[in-house]
Write a structure and sequence with these properties.
The chain is 54% helix and 0% strand. The protein contains 8 helices and no strands.
Length: 162
């Protein structure tokens, strides 16, 4: 009788924890380091953020967007005025476009803009673009870890963002 009581007692204690553990999803993989994301933030603010906004929300042409269009270089002002918007790098719109693609594909797309002579980015190299991508992923909810992001990272964006 004592043995049955002990088993019932153990099940009563352990079952709620088992249910709680199985109800939680697996942790998302980390594909970049905190150092990469911080370096990416600085680089983003000195380049991409001028048009895409420091908030990463892009531009929709509304008054009060920061950085003000009038504060941009003349060529950037013209570019923003022609397109009427600059796409966001964070949120639902961004993830609907890039969520099913890999981190490597996102890096490659950012590299196209980084290499475009129209934008005249200074010091924009592969490492800077990878770091900016790490920052963008972090701002979309991905968590840094010990693994470094590279130009060939195959992880699908939606698999790493929270």
């Amino acid at each position: 009788m004592n043995r049955i009581a002990a088993v019932v007692f153990a099940v009563t204690l352990l079952a709620p924890g088992r249910l709680m553990l199985t109800g939680q999803g697996a942790a998302k993989p980390s594909v970049f380091t905190a150092v990469q994301a911080e370096a990416g933030r600085t680089s983003y603010e000195n380049s991409c953020g001028k048009c895409h906004a420091y908030s990463l929300l892009g531009r929709t042409g509304q008054e009060g967007e920061l950085t003000p269009v009038s504060g941009l270089l003349a060529a950037y002002q013209e570019f923003v005025r022609k397109s009427g918007r600059v796409p966001p790098f964070v949120g639902k719109t961004f993830l609907s476009r890039w969520g099913q693609k890999t981190a490597a594909e996102l890096i490659a797309r950012f590299q196209v803009t980084a290499n475009d002579t129209f934008f005249q980015f200074e010091g924009m190299n592969d490492d800077v673009v990878v770091n900016i991508t790490a920052y963008v992923l972090q701002m979309n909810g991905a968590k840094p870890g010990h693994q470094s992001l590279t130009k060939t990272t195959p992880a699908v964006v939606n698999s790493i963002v929270q």
